[in-house]
Specification:
- By secondary structure, the protein is mainly α.
- It is globular, with a radius of gyration of 18 Å.
- The chain is built from 14 helices and no strands.
């Protein structure tokens, strides 16, 4: 469904063109679509940021509005907290795992801060980069998923594995790579099974999304536009719902099937993006 939404957006803009609009003109349909895109793609290995950027470029949605973009991530953050509520409430039992997850999150938080302070962030949002990273990291996902593996998160995650996953996680700062995708790819190469690789990916989102959420909550708090506040809270609620459903469905799916469908999706979408990018 996301594939057809992306392609429809590209074609609609390519054929008819769409006039840009301000953040005050955003409607609930736009909030619904962006929340669906964020909620579904955040935890699947297909890159949420690239999909958000694609909709922004081809439909002139105002997801480029920083507060709204962050609000969408707050919804995903709350969803992952609810998903791992038992583990979080039993922190003493799972403290080793959480400490390693925090360690694995430090590289991307540090690099993300440095990139955010520079102008390079805008250069990374081009369609050519999104297209190439979507394809190339899709191929890496394919090969990692063919590894024979049986490692368990609670037993086999150690400092070495956490650091390897953490440093590879830095690549997810590039749109199209996919935070979930690179984490799962790294974990699969380290011989974790699919379900545990996905759980590592989910847990890795907590520190990153927490940092984004704190920033977003503050900006919503200081916003004096009541209508904009309502829209942001709507995006948080909808993103939460779609994110939680996606996590449950994704784990259920990979218990029975490989990641090939996501690899195929990435390659087809990436090629189409590159076609649009190089024709423009």
């Amino acid at each position: 469904m996301l594939f057809f939404l992306c392609i429809s957006a590209m074609l609609f803009n390519y054929i008819f063109g769409i006039q840009s609009k301000s953040s005050l003109n955003i409607g609930m349909l736009e909030i619904l679509i962006l929340s669906l895109v964020q909620g579904v793609t955040e935890f699947l290995p297909i890159s949420s940021s690239s999909h958000i950027i694609l909709f922004s470029k081809f439909m002139n949605f105002i997801s480029e509005d920083l507060i709204l973009n962050v609000s969408l991530h707050i919804g995903s953050f709350l969803a992952v907290l609810v998903f791992f509520r038992k583990e979080i409430l039993s922190f003493l039992i799972y403290r080793k795992v959480f400490m390693l997850i925090i360690l694995a999150s430090l590289p991307i938080i540090l690099c993300g801060y440095l990139i955010a302070q520079s102008d390079i962030i805008n250069d990374l949002r081009s369609l050519k980069i999104i297209g190439w990273t979507t394809v190339l990291f899709g191929v890496l996902l394919y090969f990692s998923d063919k590894m024979e593996n049986e490692k368990n998160l609670e037993i086999n995650l150690d400092i070495k594995a956490a650091l390897i996953i953490g440093f590879l996680h830095i690549f997810s700062l590039i749109p199209g790579v996919s935070r979930s995708g690179i984490a799962i790819t790294a974990a699969r190469f380290l011989k974790f099974d699919r379900v545990n690789a996905a759980k590592i990916s989910f847990l890795l989102s907590i520190p990153t999304l927490l940092a984004v959420s704190v920033f977003g909550i503050y900006n919503i708090y200081v916003t004096d536009n009541f209508d904009l506040i309502k829209l942001n809270f709507s995006s948080i609620i909808l993103s939460f719902i779609f994110s939680y459903i996606t996590m449950v469905a994704f784990l259920g799916y990979i218990k029975k099937a490989s990641l090939d469908v996501f690899v195929l999706y990435r390659i087809v979408l990436g090629v189409l993006i590159l076609i649009f990018a190089y024709q423009g």
